[in-house]
Structure formats: structure tokens, C-alpha cells
Amino acid sequence: MEKENVIVTHELTKRFGDFTAVDNVSFAVQKGEIFGFIGANGAGKTTAMRMLCGLSLPSSGTATVAGFDVYKQNEQIKKHIGYMSQKFSLYEDLTIRENIRFYAGIYGLRDERIREKTDLLLQQLHMKGAERTLVRALPLGWKQKLAFSIAIVHDPAIVFLDEPTGGVDPITRREFWSLIYEAAGRGITIFVTTHYMDEAEYCNRVSIMVDGRIDALDSPANLMQQYASASMDGVFLQLARKAKRSGD
Ligand SMILES: Nc1ncnc2c1ncn2[C@@H]1O[C@H](COP(=O)(O)OP(=O)(O)OP(=O)(O)O)[C@@H](O)[C@H]1O
């Protein structure tokens, strides 16, 4: 049976003045898929992701996210997605437990559900006993795992992760990825940008953006075969070399 598509774009485009940041991008992402979105600095990943999250209107083209139209239903989209940016927004002056409660409340969970979810998260993250620790005192890897769990506390259809593991060591990144797999196993679609090519290999499919366009899109195994490379690093370098645009 065909899996349901939760993101569908057709010739999605974003222009800033006469500069085309995202250029006629068409793709679909299936429910429960881990979809990697990679590209050199300035390729257009964040701009595309912001349109899909309902944070920025496209210049042209179409897109639906969780069945909602990015032009007309951006408030609905925001309710059905989770988002974690590079500068995740945990409150440093609140404890772990207080951060979970705060965001669960914003997402509209009822008190009883918040209590259940808080206990579940603390257990999953092995943070029981540390729940009254201020977030500011936590190591970066703990903060990232907590931020991810909070981004999906309301069981969204899709979670958008913008370079979620920047700056952490490989072991912590792997632990972070086990949380991603667990969420995908529950049917949450993962849309993730990363600069780490080992992480690209963990994705079900990877799209590679060059100068605002999607130049390649397939499973890591197929891409490595197509570009005759033993790693995603090799695939990425072949494509990124063609880029004319440089990041800022
Ligand atoms: N508001 C804006 N006005 C003008 N140009 C912009 C604006 N936002 C982004 N751009 C430009 O669009 C291009 C794509 O930027 P974007 O941030 O989407 O790239 P990216 O692939 O996410 O890069 P990075 O990996 O560095 O985050 C860049 O050249 C950037 O300077």
C-alpha cells in the first residue's frame, strides 16, 4: 500500500528581490519518513524549511504540510508540527520539569496529559532525579535531547529539525539519533537539516540542495551508487562543488 504523503511541494519558490533563494523545488515526504535536507551554506535549506513551517510565504509554487496549505492555513500548520532550530529555545532559568510543563501548556495539552508526558519524557531521557536542575546547568547534549523531546511533546505529524546536533560529540549525536528513530517509529515524520554526512546516512532519503534547487533526492544507498561513492561525504562533495553561491 502507498504510504501517505505528509509534505508535498510543487515548484516551490522564494525570491528576495531579484535573488531566488529557493528555486522551483518539488518533492514529497511520506508519513514516518526520516527525510534529510542537506546542502552547502546558503543553499536555501532554512528558507525552504521556514516556508514549510508556515513562517514565511512562498513567492510562487505550492506546498501542503500535514494536509494544510502553506499560503492559507499557516496557523493550522503550526499546530500540527514541531520545530527545533539550531538555537533551540529552552528557558535557561527554568528547570527541566518547568520547561516541559511550559511548552506542553503552550501546545495546549491538558494538565493530566502534561503530568503523564512529563514523567514519560524524564524516564525516556534518563533525567529522572535531575528534573529540578536548571537547564542552564545542563551539558549541550542534554539540552538538545530535551529540546527535541519538547518539540514533539504534542505528538505532531512532522517535526522540523534545523541542524539539531551542531557542536556535540559523535556519541551524543548517536544518542540523539536514537530519539529520532523512536519518534519516527511512532509515525512522526522527521525533516532534518544537517552538515554531518554520517547523519545523512541515517536518513531514509536525502535531498541535496545546490544554489536553491534540489539536485539529487534518493536513499543514501542509491545516491552512493549513483555517484559511485563509498560515503555520503563523497556524494555531497561532487554536488556541492558545482555550487556558484557561497554562504554568508
Ligand atoms: N530575508 C532574506 N533576505 C535576503 N536574502 C536572504 C534572506 N534570507 C535568506 N537569504 C539568502 O538566501 C540564501 C539561502 O539562505 P538559507 O539561510 O536558506 O541557506 P541555508 O541552506 O539554510 O544555509 P545554512 O546552512 O548556512 O543555514 C542565502 O544566500 C541567504 O543570504
Automatic annotation (TrEMBL):
Matches recorded under CDD domains: ABC_DR_subfamily_A
Gene Ontology molecular functions: ATP binding
High-level lineage: Bacteria, Pseudomonadati, Bacteroidota, Sphingobacteriia, Sphingobacteriales
Superkingdom, taxonomy of origin: Bacteria
Pfam families (alphabetical): ABC_tran
PROSITE patterns: ABC_TRANSPORTER_2 (PS50893)
ABC transporter domain ranges (all copies): 7-236
Designated name of the protein: ABC transporter ATP-binding protein
UniProt entry tagged with the keyword Repeat: no
Swiss-Prot/TrEMBL keywords: ATP-binding, Nucleotide-binding
InterPro entries: AAA+_ATPase, ABC_transporter-like_ATP-bd, P-loop_NTPase
